[in-house]
């Protein structure tokens, strides 16, 4: 019997979100990055246009992070200077975006002042031309102050700022509205809360094409399959025309993957698991590759070699497979 | 074209006996129509009806067995395109490829390394399923020798890869009872290959250059009377391969396109082993039932096998651990005691962190039906009464001298009640497992 290629038609596509702004657009970025716009399931070029490739944001922190040595080594020469660290990520490792995590703001930790945080953001903006993702330390009160100040100081840069959560989205949404940034809407592995949060943010008049979904993934071996299925359902919803599920998806790959024992335990302690170097890199890269197949648009990653391998994987997947 | 539920219903005995596990014949017919039941479950179906229905009621993707004996692995028999619609059933089998070009020492070493690909993590045991021997040498005798030596050195299933049916036939003699997969029937050799597979009752891979050629070849082989098939549409570029695999799976499930109702074999091609693993991740994710790899380093296989396990878990059933008092390290009567739920992700995150404290400790896992701490608490399955009862059940009073238990920070609210119920000192631990090491350093070092 002759083969009749089966193409599922979509009613709608994933929202496009533009990150960053060039001089003409009121910012200082050398270029902008567009994510989303997919008119089909991930990499189904044969039934819809996959207009933009998924991108990688490499993580930079404003303090020396409590990372395993394997992860700190590649950055040993720059880890004290967020600007140079970011530069290295872009120039040497080809990061599409810089993901600046302001963990130093944590009142229980380094407790950087709001001014210090703003200065760090400016330092990184000056050091690199790529668009920035900026996220607070997780302390609700402190993040309010820090992110509002960052939004104001970087007005016009069209940052991606996070995280907005169900109980705590108003001040960040307002800051993004006033100073023209994009927002990360983070929901706890729950498609209904995800949708609800997007509705709430949108009701405050932040347009849908300024929202990115963070579904709170689990890393490989630790709940990744929940995120995988929720992301698949989101993409199917978006393609069927559900506007409130149609935003691009951002995944905290690096932090989740490197939390696990499997990524870091030395072979001397776990001889049955093989050498930790490639094991750690693959733990991160496989987390990314699996979630790319579920519809990830922005991968927030850490290890340069994992980034290189995932970029190669994306290159392979972006080759057209139209019939 | 598949029959509708009503068409099937007309052929059933209409007794509504319920012995098939479905309350009515109509409901059973609907399940048959959607490929979610097998006609074998009906004890009263007539032979005539069976014949009429078998073709239509057969699962959309055939189950094909690779190997024989305890190591044998079932492939295919899948019913879904998305795991959230129900689940994926038969984990992708992973095979490692070796060449008959290797010297006998090299081959021996490689087979030993492959045999050693056994992993234990989070209470699960992972292995690879097969060794594929490929005929690259000029001398056909080299293939027979390599196959014999691999077969003698491993319990794993075998895949024999050679284009020449005569070469395969020679190598197969003597090991046919291992039921290896024969790779592959092509347009040029399919008659001889099909006969060989048929005579030895071995599964047969079918290689077509593209979907159209593959479908035609499958039809020819089926016409020869053989159906233990595995499909290779020939794509070696990742993007083309996942498109082809998706088409095969879709057509088999949504259109009951019989020519594609078999499991899929994928061969990786990337030169860098890390790239190769990511290629394999794509194939495991997108419907391959068998993936043939070249790298056999443990550090490369563990992440891949972990992903396979994650993808194939049943989304409806949380994975859980047993309710008991677990010992982490060399515990004694002075060891601290932690308590958490029996949701395996929670349990193993906590266990891993306690291990990192280097302080031998007890960890009590309370049966919460596999719910995580906060969900279980909200659902009334992780309350002070419940924890107190389990403490009693495992005789915790007599296990340690200092009656002090550490509860998850997110259920700090349980502290007072648990103290009242047990008379134990209750310490509120960190909210996240990742805080345990710092917590132990500050509170338990003595």
Automatic annotation (TrEMBL), chain A:
Bilayer-spanning residue ranges: none
InterPro entries, per database record: Ac-CoA_synth_d_su_TIM-brl, ACDS_complex_subunit, CO_DH/Ac-CoA_synth_dsu, Dihydropteroate_synth-like_sf
Top-level taxon of the source organism: Bacteria
GO biological process entries: one-carbon metabolic process
Domain CO dehydrogenase/acetyl-CoA synthase delta subunit TIM barrel: 17-291
NCBIfam families reported for this sequence: cdhD, PRK04452.1-2
Protein name as annotated: Corrinoid/iron-sulfur protein small subunit
Organism: Neomoorella thermoacetica
Lineage: Bacteria, Bacillati, Bacillota, Clostridia, Neomoorellales
Automatic annotation (TrEMBL), chain B:
Start and end residues of each 4Fe-4S domain: 1-59
Gene, per the UniProt record: acsC_1
NCBIfam families: PRK04165.1
A GO biological process held by the record: acetyl-CoA catabolic process
Positions that bind [4Fe-4S] cluster: 17, 20, 25, 42
Entry annotated with the keyword Cell membrane: no
SUPFAM superfamilies noted in UniProt: Dihydropteroate synthetase-like
Residues at which 5-methoxybenzimidazolylcob(I)amide binds: 340, 346, 370-373, 433
Listed name of the protein: Corrinoid/iron-sulfur protein large subunit
Record keywords: 4Fe-4S, Cobalt, Iron, Iron-sulfur, Metal-binding
Gene3D superfamilies tied to this protein: 3.40.50.11600, Dihydropteroate synthase-like
GO molecular function term, any single one: methyltransferase activity
Top-level taxon of the source organism: Bacteria
InterPro entries recorded: 4Fe-4S_dom, Ac-CoA_synth_d_su_TIM-brl, ACDS_complex_subunit, AcylCoA_decarb/synth_gsu, Dihydropteroate_synth-like_sf
Lineage: Bacteria, Bacillati, Bacillota, Clostridia, Neomoorellales
